[in-house]
Specification:
The structure holds two protein chains of two kinds.
Chain A (H helix, E strand, L loop, with lengths): L1 H9 L4 H13 L4 H6 L21 H12 L10 H13 L5 H9 L3 H12 L2 H14 L18 H12 L4 H14 L4 H6 L15 H21 L18 H8 L5 E4 L7 H24 L1 H13 L3 H8 L7 H22 L7 H12 L13 E4 L46 H10 L4 H16 L20 H13 L4 H9 L2 H4 L9 H5 L12 E2 L2 H12 L31 H4 L19 H9 L1 H24 L5 H14 L5 H11 L3 H7 L10 H16 L1 H4 E2 L1
Antiparallel strand pairs in A: 1-2, 3-4
Chain B lengths: L17 H7 L4 H10 L25 E7 L13 H6 L29 E4 L4 E4 L3 H4 L5 E8 L5 H10 L9 H9 L9 E5 L24 E2 L18 H20 L5 H24 L6 H6 L5 H18 L4 E6 L11 H25 L6 E6 L3 E7 L3 E5 L3 E6 L8 E2 L1 E2 L6 E3 L2 E2 H11 L9 E3 L2 E3 L15
Parallel strand pairs in B: 1-7, 1-8, 4-12, 4-15, 5-6, 5-7
Antiparallel strand pairs in B: 2-3, 4-11, 8-11, 9-10, 13-14, 16-17
Classes of the chains: A mainly alpha, B alpha/beta.
Chain lengths: ~725, ~475
Amino acid sequence: MLQSKRTRSCTFIPLFAWGLLTASLHAEEFDVLSWAKSPLKLPSVPPVKWVKGENKTHPVDAFIKKTLEDKNLAPSPQAEARTLIRRLSFDLRGLPPEPSDVESFLKDPSPQAYEALVDKYLNSPQYGERWARHWLDLVRYAETDGYREDKFRPQAYRYRDYVIQAFNRDKPFDQFVQEQLAGDELWPESLEALAATGFYRLGVYEFNQSDVRGQWEFILDDLTDLTGDVFLGLATGCARCHDHKFDPLSQKDYYRLKAFYSAIIPREDRSFWSKAEKQRQIAWENKTKAIREKIEIARKAAVRNEKHRKIARFPEDIQAMIHKPVKERSPYEHQLAELAYRQVTRGLEEQYNKPKGPNKDEWARLLTELKKFAKDKPQPKWALTITDVGPQAPEVHIPGKSDPDLDLSPAFPSALTGASPKILSPRKTPRSTGRRTALAKWLTSSENSLVFRVWVNRLWQYHFGQGIVATSSDFGKLGTPPSHPELLDWLTFKFIEGGMRMKPLHKLMVTSKAYKQSSLVEPQSKSALQDPQGKWLSRRRITRLESEQIRDAMLATSGELQLKVLGPSVEASTSRRSIYVKVKRNSQPAILGSFDCPDGFDSIAKRNVTTTAPQALYLLNGDWPFQRAKAFKKRVDTLTQKQIEKDPQSSVRNLWIEQAYRLAFNRKPTVKEIQRAITFIKPTEGELISTQKDKKPSTISSKEHENRIDFCHVLLNTNEFLYID
Amino acid sequence: MNTKHSTDTPYNSSAYSRRDMLLKSGTGFGALALASLLNAEKSKFKTKNPLAPKPSPLKARAKSVIFLFMEGGPSHIDLFDPKPLLNQLAGKQLPESFGTVITPMGEGRSPLLGSKRKWKQHGQCGHWISDWLPHTATCADDITVIRSCWQDGINHSGSVCQMNTGSVIGGRPSLGSWAIYGLGSENQNLPSFVIMEDNPGRVNNGPRNWSSGFLPAVYQGTAFKGGNAPIAHLNNPKGVNKKRQLEKRDLLLELNRQHAKKREIQTELEARIQSYELAFNMQAQAPEAMDLSSESEDTRELYGMHKKETATFGRNCLLARRLVERGVRFVQLYHGAGSKWDAHSGIENNHTSMCKSSDLPVAGLLKDLKRRGLLDETLVIWGGEFGRTPMSEKGNGRDHNPTGFTMWMAGGGVRPGQVIGKTDDLGLRAIEDPLHVLDLHATILYALGLDPQALTFLHKGRPERPTINTGEPFLPLFA
């Protein structure tokens, strides 16, 4: 009775909201989805007359210029060199440019030098670290369970490393998607492809949920939603409970999409050890075999009790599945039994090192003995992966509907294609259904223009701050029409033609005039008045650094940043890049959480950019930024010292201020700025008398040291530091 | 609320107008910025401060909410919902007619546990309240008891999550976030959604409970710590004195103003300048709000601050009153943070102590609000994430029961003295006027003058609503 009430009210859409929605629909009659799924054709590059002196037309600009001309607008001039290099470096690497790179680029800011810089950045390992984060936002990457305990998943990082490496190696997009969705079926021998299936293991997990059926349906539903969000750019989640209100997506479509996943089963049993590590493990097992067997005997009673206690918590039907021999279980029963049994094993693992029961002392003694061999045992290395439960997939059902004639076998959303999936038993893994391979192949088939338009639009959004379709995960009825549909088509065509590699597309985008143009325009300019959002690309949009960029930029500026790549996640207090910081769903470090870092519950297509007082409090009063200011100050001291040795005639303070500006803003201070800085860092006479204990006139007073720290701290708080032109 | 799709960043809170900046340019940072904020309402140029107070679309019965969250799940059948049949059947299994029950510890077939409580009717209205809550009982005529609450989760994590966000799965905005998204804040110098725990840092799910989810971070809750620096990073860095802090502030302002000169159309730069000003105002005002020195001895005693067992929660309750007095919209107090009400075994000892440490402060809060005329405009809510089973666990405890439990509400336009809904004869399931958590949320938003169906935020192509498109305000609750 209660349930029916919920279902009924779920279909209720207030008239008020309908009015607004339909009003906006009528205003824009462009059907985004019809366009986005239509076959790709290569649009011809519009002929544009360029101003004298420009010998080459960048095709991207040709499309943009045509639209600008239609709107009676003009592009902005190119940004100054130091702005360009800063923009490019943060965009491609997520870091401020190296001072030496800035220097050489300022000397030679030619298009060739710029292109060389693009290549350099795209080929640096920091590129993958930056761009992996965009993908991780989409797939709601996190490294904890997200419920009460928010348990850390120490092996989750293998998926993150997989993504970083995929970008750095410029893996073709089709392969990238196929590995994540069906790596276990297509490349079963490859550990890399297996780590990619970590895609299925990123969601939340509740370790003590006794409603096992509900938990399993949630896991599969969550993956179905994710598929829509990430690949199709459609909010499929709506159709879980009812036919989609706005898009041609029925509830049946939803469950047939879900059916591609119905056979999966979570796995952690494939070892990621090297040959040497495997041998060490075998040696350890041999050496400790006798002890471990004795421990098993000693804890037998405790194990039995623990198992009994844990299993008894489940509903009776689940208990029966657990007790059934594996061979007699249906695939669905096996999935549920295994899911439930995780809770049992978890308890056992926890209690292995906690002796109790009648053989407590013996057990404890054996543990001590076993510990002596601990140094011989290699660290466990595995990954969160999946395979299919077997060649037969369990059926899916629509909750509350029991129509036996309803076909819920795997199918692509009917509005997107007339094609039916060809599901074949995978050649290399006959124990798998092949369902996910069929889905992955369809998603990445070059005929599936929706998926590619969605992806190329995302790349554009990450480079330009706004997608050609502004609602980059919603290409449906509520999505915004594309600002430059032909440009997106052209880019998408080029992307597919070029082997679906990301790096050439990056290069195509960032070498355009549109990318390189200035963001600075007069308030009375046409650009400001007629293109207030910068939608038509009459100028560059300024952007606030993202949370990871802020943290990384502070570490880079202070000289503390460690550029070690890949590996297990670390605490935020270290100096590694933010991509390696543990991603905890329930609690984020202040520096990341307060600057809109996603929390890992939901696919994020575009981050919020908020400006709040707690951010200001944190940057101004928080210990972490203050410590960075101290290190930054030290670095400037050292650099100044080196310079003064070369040029003893110059003013120490002036040199010091120049260095600080160079590191924080990649530019020289103006004369006025130097004067202002001097009044801030130079102690007053009174202060010197009260604090100066040093006798030598050449040394810096302790008061000035403090002032210098404060000055560096202020620089790290400025808008010039936090925003990119 | 606006359902039109955004063409900019999903949410960009930094939309203060450029005119504001012109208004204050050329003068000292502190004074003029503050003046402009104070004059914001009078000014003909409207700011787009996302926390600016907004008129409520419906009649607002309450201005503020104080949510007293008894974390871990108090036993409704031992506090507000007496079940004579339970004592008659004590020791026997749940009758077949009740069907099967999934509980986290699998106690569906465990013997029923009788209640040892002494029950009495209280006040003019005759509310049944057990001897565990003698002080709350003295406020019987101010409260309305809802005996038919239910929700979806069976574990603490999901259920605490749902009581906060409407969903057992994390990621949605907290109710308080929706409230300030819809109504803004009456006090720009204090956070408008404040959380206090009796055991700081222990609450189930942690800060995620007051997360703004997909709503912008300006709407997230702020956890207050004890002491005179309740907000994180409120004090200057070690070694930086007040004078120095002001000098840094001035330098920062100058650099930012200089930077903004060439970027006049980028209003978000101005918003960041203002955010520093707000931060400084918070530094000044938050400690004042937390300073109890002006409270009389009498008031402190009313909240039980003079007794060891009630001092902590009493202080939080008193602070809650001070915060709503200062225009804070949504205050959530956790009692028993870290599932302390979770009496799987030894419910006698557990609930005796939990009731003892909360009962007097809760009653004190109601009385204090009432005598100051604040109860009319403050909705006070009491309850946990679920109730407890009539079945026993480990012989002397009770398992989780999400299918029927009690909460109560007072003030904020609620017609007091009512009993709403009913559970079955053993208190297992809500059977009359069942109110799902989403219905409760809808009701709370309605009390604040918000229409939960009209309050929307476009997220990933869906107009999201606080009560996930379901949930209806329960109107008979109100006068």
